[in-house]
Amino acid sequence: MVGVRLTVLKRRAGDHTAMHAHAGGQLALVCRGALELAAADRRMLMPMGCLGWIPPRLPHGAHYHGDLHGWSLELDSGLPAALPAQLQAWGGTPLLEGIFRRLAAWPEQADEAAAARLLQVLGDELAWAEPYPSSLPWPRHPALRQLAQALQAEPARDWDLQRWAEHIGMSRRSLIRHFRAETGLGVGEWRERLRMMRAQALLAEGRSVSFCALELGYCDCSAFIVAFRRCFGGTPGRFLSD
């Protein structure tokens, strides 16, 4: 199809892709494993069944959790309307997956107008799809990035705001104000979302619920399950069985 290229995504657990950019936009559907994407101002974790968008010319790197299988749809032209200018994830639907499978079997000499209509259906379905809560804005200020990177490296670290403020050389009041201004989230809310993204990566790697709870700093499995349900609307056990 003119302006569209569909390829199979297949990566081994632990693989990395260095920072790069695509001339056109890219939609990725994850069928197994989890795909983690990092751009300058956002991190995103796409578990099994999730569909993600990478805008044209956006520098990003990737990390693969578990053996990853999926599809990558590169769009050089005819992008569906209203796609965002940043990384975005949606919960997958049977129709979205069906469109990808149909495009994979599309004959080379097929009617281009028919392909364009199929892409329009894809755009319409994305407009209805629910955004998936696994995208995390990344602060720009160097001191706030230092905090974010420390929590990314050690998500179980449970310092209070005063200690964090002293660690990064800001006042507690400035930390609270600037962090929310740059991310739209409080530090505690941001940290919990980071932990939940990390939880999905660990689950995709085959880790147990009890391992995730301990690794992420929860006092017990019940507290971890409550946090997971609050973020994703289901339990880790349901996530593993999907």
TrEMBL record:
HTH araC/xylS-type domain segment(s): 145-242
Taxonomy, superkingdom: Bacteria
The protein's matches in InterPro entries, at most eight in alphabetical order, are given as:
AraC-bd, Homeodomain-like_sf, HTH_AraC, RmlC-like_jellyroll, RmlC_Cupin_sf
Pfam families per the UniProt record, alphabetical? AraC_binding (PF02311), HTH_18 (PF12833)
Which SMART domains does the UniProt entry name for this protein? HTH_ARAC
Q: Which UniProt keywords apply?
A: DNA-binding, Transcription, Transcription regulation
The answer, when asked if DNA-binding is one of the entry's keywords, is: yes
Q: Which PANTHER family match?
A: HTH-TYPE TRANSCRIPTIONAL REGULATOR NIMR
Give the protein's recorded name.
Answer: HTH araC/xylS-type domain-containing protein
